[in-house]
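Section handout, structural biology tutorial.
Before the tutorial, make sure you can parse a SMILES string by hand: atoms, branches in parentheses, ring closures as digits. In the record below the ligand is NAP, and the chain has 311 residues. In the tutorial you will relate the predicted structure tokens back to the input. Do not try to memorize them.
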Amino acid sequence: MKSIIITGATSGIGFECARHTASIAPGEQIVIACRDVKSGENTIQAIAHETGHPNLVCMPLDLNSLASVRNFRDQFSKSSCPCIIALINNAGIQNISQTQITEEGFESTFGVNHLAPLYLTLLLMPFMDSKASITFTASGVHDPKQKTGIEHPVFKSARELAYPAEMEEKLHIAGQRRYSTSKLCNILTSYELQRRLSNTAIRVNAFDPGLVPGTGLARTYSPLMRFLWRNVFPLLKYFVHNINTAENSGKRLANLAYSEDYKESKGKYFEGAKEIRSSIDSYNEDFQHTLWKTSVELLGIKQEETSVLLA
Ligand SMILES: NC(=O)c1ccc[n+]([C@@H]2O[C@H](COP(=O)([O-])OP(=O)(O)OC[C@H]3O[C@@H](n4cnc5c(N)ncnc54)[C@H](OP(=O)(O)O)[C@@H]3O)[C@@H](O)[C@H]2O)c1
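Predicted structure of the complex:
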């Protein structure tokens, strides 16, 4: 028995991913990594009730705090099944209201969506099975060509993203840009990590679930937008490309991370079940390298330590 760790499984796409994982991986331990243990327990209860999966556990993880990431690693390392066959970095936020910062003082969209998942991944490397998969839930909003209506990403440096200058623009514009940029960071990180793991059988991929209305992602939007998000946007799936239900996207995410069908996929970007090219910027190796280097510095990890963790 090995472990499949899923972040952000208490709601939306992650919940459906955990549900489907329970049905395709009955012999593995599924770890619901969640910031609210009560929601984690409710998630386990619902999935166990439906699938009868006997090995669902929840462990506390708040991506708003690097100390919490370290505590998660410590708890996981002492668990009964500390060998990872799949790590699914799915949790994420989109904040279009007041700027928030993480416990360590990083802008929270960048901290929660990029820095903490990278930290989690690095700290968990010693527990990876030789054929493990690592999957990052990204988004089509990272690609200006996709015309999603969300502000386009702007990547200059990780330090500017971690400590943004005072804003001279509307909060929702800055918030959307931070979100799309954090999703670009997920893809840059996937490609860089895969390159650094090129002499192993570990596979790293990025996943776009498509637009998935009705999830908790729109929680900082206005009441009207939240109403539309829950009740009107779902109907658009009949007319617009790449709009999905959480159930569909969660299933595809679980398959990408665990199913045999994707065992040869390494360093790729998937729109749903289909491999496609990501944005031009995402293939920029200078961006990939500089994001990695500065992120690792921000996390307080020495460059030589990352080589040891990835060895
Ligand atoms: N919905 C879309 O249209 C869409 C499109 C493209 C990509 N995505 C991506 O898909 C992923 C899942 O989003 P979703 O739409 O399913 O949204 P969601 O329903 O809000 O789910 C987000 C999950 O992340 C967790 N989370 C948030 N902050 C956290 C933190 N500080 N520490 C640990 N967990 C935290 C939430 O936990 P709580 O239950 O405790 O809040 C929840 O389980 C995100 O990465 C998002 O960027 C979504």
